[in-house]
Design a protein that fits this description.
Layout lengths: L35 E4 L6 E4 L1 H10 L4 E4 L10 E3 L4 E3 L10 E3 L11
Antiparallel strand pairs: 1-2, 1-3, 4-5, 4-6
The structure holds zinc ion (2 copies).
């Protein structure tokens, strides 16, 4: 069995829920739709948050960067473009120089 889901180029991630969960249990999950994409740390761990929880994140937590969610945010192999504040797909010319590969893609994560 191929362990990888058959994801295509265009995946609609509207409907993706906010990742805020105060007790880290399903019953405490925020039910709102996520509108913000967050990169938490230099290990390139990412999360998603709704508007109010993005405000909470800004007020309370350290994070590296954030941007409003776009369709490319949910794509495997997406690059985080710090300059343009969005996710870009590596087939777009000239993006790889300033963008970083996110850790949710199928790349080697053992590098320091
Ligand atoms: Zn939320
Ligand atoms: Zn994104």
């Amino acid at each position: 069995m191929d362990p990888f889901p058959p994801l295509g180029r265009f995946v609609d991630i509207r409907g993706q829920k906010c990742g805020y969960s105060p007790g880290n249990t399903p019953s405490s999950d925020c039910p709102a739709e996520a509108t913000w994409h967050i990169i938490w740390n230099l290990d390139l761990e990412t999360g998603m948050a709704c508007g109010p929880h993005m405000d909470l994140v800004r007020a309370r937590y350290m994070f590296v960067d954030s941007h409003a969610i776009e369709p490319d945010c949910g794509m495997p192999g997406t690059l985080w473009d710090f300059d343009s504040k969005r996710c870009v797909y590596p087939d777009q010319p000239g993006t790889e120089a300033q963008a970083v590969l996110l850790s949710n893609s199928a790349s080697d994560q053992s590098a320091p």
